[in-house]
Amino acid sequence: MCRMTGTSTGPAAYLLCHNEIRVAMRILSLVFLAFVTVFALPAAAEVKVIRDVIYHEAPGLDPGDVRADVYIPEGAKDAPMVIMMHGGAWTFGNKQNALGMYQAKYFTDQGFVFIAMNYRLAPSHRFPAQEEDAAAAIAYFHEHAKEFGADPDKLFLMGHSAGAHMAALVAIDPDYLDAFGLKTDVIKGVAALDSAAYNLSRTGRDGDIPDFYHPAFTGDDRDVWAAASPTLLVEEETPIPPFLLLYVDRAVAPARAKELAETLKGKGHKAEARLVKKRSHKSLNDRLGAKGDKAAPMIVEFFREQLAD
């Protein structure tokens, strides 16, 4: 009920009271609309999260370095899976703080089991420790895929920055998976996001590589640069999976992505280098899978094309 206070009487008091009622009714209507909207939305699909799965055990390994979080869509059975390798210049980051907040949800909504992995970091662990861990994770989840509702024959790799370099190298150089009794053809496809390190031999100048790379790679050892350069290791006879190389408009990365794509195609493999507009190196990862993002749908479309082959 509206109260008349002070000396207000007559028409003025009536208008004041009427306006208060109208405001109150408007607020109640908005609250009711919000209530109806929330409860009319379809329930979000349940996602089971299994954290800190240890994917490799070996003498001297810190279990914290070789753990992964697994995000499983509701009712997953023989689902495709994607192993994500985070960026951070091979020196920092982990399976949670170096990933965009939308990635796991986006890919599980699309029916993928999403696996975010840790790996050993430089400078305590220099190259090729990171590649060895990538291969160990692939071998583990290939063997244990059914336990997580996934199909071992539908395994994809994804990585950002340093992680993109790792994903590319482990899919191109067969030695890493060979150590686990596997071939590179266990990988159905690779989505590599904006690395500038696909060819360190072209990055190095005057007998050195940029300081940025020193913690992970020997600064003056050209043999190490070559061994860490996916572009230089492409072989026609190696069963290399299809590649989608996404890059943004920045220095070095576009040229290195295009060079790798052309090298792969020149050796008879499938590859495409594609520009992602209106994204920086950081936001490509941070916004991956967010509303309006164009990169994540590109990746899912690419993955599904490989499943259809």
Automatic annotation (TrEMBL):
Residues 69-173 form the BD-FAE-like domain. InterPro entries: AB_hydrolase_fold, BD-FAE-like_dom, GDXG_lipolytic_enzyme. GO terms for molecular function: hydrolase activity. It comes from the Bacteria. Keywords: Hydrolase. Signal peptide: none annotated. Gene3D superfamilies: alpha/beta hydrolase (3.40.50.1820). PANTHER family: AB HYDROLASE SUPERFAMILY PROTEIN C4A8.06C, KYNURENINE FORMAMIDASE. This is BD-FAE-like domain-containing protein. It comes from Hyphomonas beringensis.
